[in-house]
Each structure stands twice: as C-alpha cells, then as structure tokens.
Amino acid sequence: MARVAIRELIKRYGDVVAIDRLNLEVKDREFVVLLGPSGCGKTTTLRCVAGLEDVTEGEIYIGDRLVNRLDPKERNVAMVFQSYALYPHMTVFKNMAFPLENARLPRQEIAKRVARTSKLLQIEPLMDRKPSQLSGGQRQRVALGRALVREPQVFLMDEPLSNLDAKLRVHMRAELKKLQKDIGVTTIYVTHDQVEAMTMADRIALMEGGVLQQHAPPMEVYEHPANRFVAGFVGSPPINMFDCDVSEDGVLDAGEFRIAISKDLLAAAQSASSKGVTVAIRPQDVPVSRDPPRENDGVGMEVYTTEPLGDVVILDLKAGDHLLKVVVGPDFQVGDASRLWVRFPPPKIHLFDRGTGRALA
Ligand SMILES: Nc1ncnc2c1ncn2[C@@H]1O[C@H](COP(=O)(O)OP(=O)(O)OP(=O)(O)O)[C@@H](O)[C@H]1O
Ligand SMILES: [Mg+2]
Question: Biggest alpha carbon distance in the chain?
C-alpha cells in the first residue's frame, strides 16, 4: 500500500490549462474522491497519476518514489474507467486472469488471486460466463476484479458507476466502499456526483477549472465550504444564495428583505471587499411557519410551488425576484396559505465575499 502525493502539478494541452498547480496528498489506505463539474480536470489528474499523460510541470509520488518518468506498468496502479471494456469472447475467469498472464505470473498464483478476488466480489458463481451473460452490476464487478487481481498499490477509478441504473448505483456505492476498506488500498475515485462523493469519501477534493477548491472530509466540505463555488456544488437541493449589502445599522440588505445577524457575523461581513457579501443558507436550515415569528425576525414570502418527495417536501418561496428553497417534513401543512414566514438563524448562515467568493464565516 502507499500514499500518493501530487506537488504543484500543471498539465497543459496547447493553450488549455487542464490542471493548474494542483497540490494533493492522499494518505495510505485513504479513499479520496475527486469531485467537480465536467471539464474541471478530474480525468486528467487520474491519467497523470496513472502515467497515461506526461505532466507539464510538477511532481507525482507514489509511496516514496517519484514516478513522473516511470511507465504506467512500473507505477503499480490499477485504473477502472467508466466504460470498462471486458473482453467479450473471454469468460469471467479469463477476463480476470488475462492481465496476470500478461505479467507472466505462475499459473498457480493466478488461480489463487482470481479465486480470492472473485470471492471478495461475490462473483464466484459467474466465473464460466461470458460478459454478455452478465447484468450491468455483475459486469462492473468483473471489471473491478480485473483491476484488483493485480494487487495494485493504488486504485484509480474514473466514474466507474455512471453506466449503472440508479438503484444499482446506490448498491454498488456501498459495496465499493466496503471493499476498499476491507483490502485497504489507497484509492482516488473520480465523480461529478456530489452524493457519491459525500457517501464514499474519507476526504473530498473538489476541483473547478483545473484548480483545487477544497480538500477536506465530506462533512467539513458541507458545513464549512471554503468558498461560494464549493457551497453551491455540495448539497441537495442546492444552497440558497443572496447578494447583500452590509448596512450601517448591522443588517444585511438583500433588497426585498433584510437579514438580521449576530455581532460576529457582522464583523465578518464588514471585512468583505467593497462589493458586499453573498449570504448562503441550506434549504434544510430555514425554519418556516404559517404565522409571523414572535421575535419579529421573520421574512414573509409567497408560496410559489411545493414539491412533495415522500419523506420531505421542498417549498419554493418567493420574495420579489428572490427564490428560496426550503425543506420541510411531510407533515408540514401548507394548506391554502399563499404566504409563509421564514427565518435565517445566524448560526446557519454562511457568508462569502461577493467579490472573491471566499468564505468569511
Ligand atoms: N487530449 C486533450 N487535448 C486537449 N484538451 C484536453 C484533452 N484532454 C482533456 N482536455 C481538456 O482538459 C480539461 C479537463 O478535462 P478532463 O477530461 O480532465 O475533465 P473531467 O473533469 O474529467 O470532465 P468530465 O466530468 O466531463 O469527465 C477540459 O477543458 C478538456 O477539454
Ligand atoms: Mg472525466
């Protein structure tokens, strides 16, 4: 097993800067999820670690070895792609044994490793089948198996579940995580799905435009997003945001309504650049009531739509041009109310510099 250290990594394709000074440490046995929107540089990062791309600048270490100049074969990593092409004419056994035969391992060792891995993945009964005789999830497990039999030091996975249907994806998500912990292999896992990242990662590395935005455990990313981009990317429904001016009397002025804040928050807000602040609050963190709250800190909003999801209801509320999403329990009675009251509890408010996007509090 091994750690992976990426130092000051730059990857350019002509004028395109795919990765811009990436610094990332993946600890031994850790499961790090590289998360970010399409084109942010996730696959490029994996390919650089795997040795499938030359780096423009910077260093990549696997264990204590600088691997920049090593061939993919010498790096002792295994990569599983989104489109995991199994060999259609080979049985499951043969698919898994093939990379080991290529590496000229003794026949007995091959049989031992394939047996062990297929047991781990619970595909033993399928060993004589061809890929066309397998379900999507089974095929996915064979693809994982084919990578695992090589007993790599580092496992690299690029959206390995994205071809599966929603239900199977949830199932495989849990299985993969368990498997990774059982074998304890250092893993970098790429996805653009924030739920996958939240549920699977020891730490999330969130990228945007080739730049690392935050690298932290899932709950820290969720509760303390480093900037506005991170706040908007993680969480469902997405976090609510309002651009506000900081007024003299210590409130945040969103135009249609005003938000009273604590002294601490005010001090943070006043440290923002001249452009003011962005206030963000998660839909789960907004208390809502049919009557105005007693403290006189409520904001009245028009009920725009309601979306019942079974376990929760999402309310879309409106004040002028501002839309606010709020999550309430299934028992919340909107009834015939056309107007509801919300509050913005100061401990739940995230503040960002409207100019730079950086977190202020
Ligand atoms: N071979 C290439 N030549 C030129 N530009 C490339 C090449 N490969 C990737 N890029 C560019 O580098 C950037 C990062 O691409 P990358 O494939 O790493 O994104 P990604 O985060 O994996 O996105 P997705 O979620 O869509 O897979 C993109 O702007 C992409 O267009
Ligand atoms: Mg990609």
Answer: 79
Q: Is the CB of 150 under 6 A from ligand 1?
A: no
DSSP state of 359: B
Q: Is the peptide bond before 237 cis (omega within 30 degrees of 0)?
A: yes
What is the atom index within ligand 1 of the atom nearest the CA of 37?
25
In sequence order, what are the beta bridge partners of 154? Answer: 77, 186
3-state helix, strand, coil in the chain (%, to 5): 30, 30, 40
Cα 19 to Cα 242: distance, rounded to the nearest angstrom = 31
List of domains in the chain: 4-232 (3.40.50.300), 238-353 (2.40.50.140)
267 and 261 Cβ atoms separated by less than 8 Å: no
The share of the chain scoring above pLDDT 70, in percent, equals: 100
Among 141, 215, 126, 210, which Cα is nearest to 175's? 141
What is the whole-number distance in angstroms between the Cα of residue 165 and the centre of ligand 2?
19
Residue bearing tokens 């309430």: 328
Ligand 1 contacts CB of residue 116 (under 6 A):
no
Q: What is the pLDDT of residues 293-339, one digit of tens each?
A: 787 778 999 999 999 999 999 999 999 989 999 999 999 988 888 89
Distance 41 CA to ligand 1 centre (A): 6
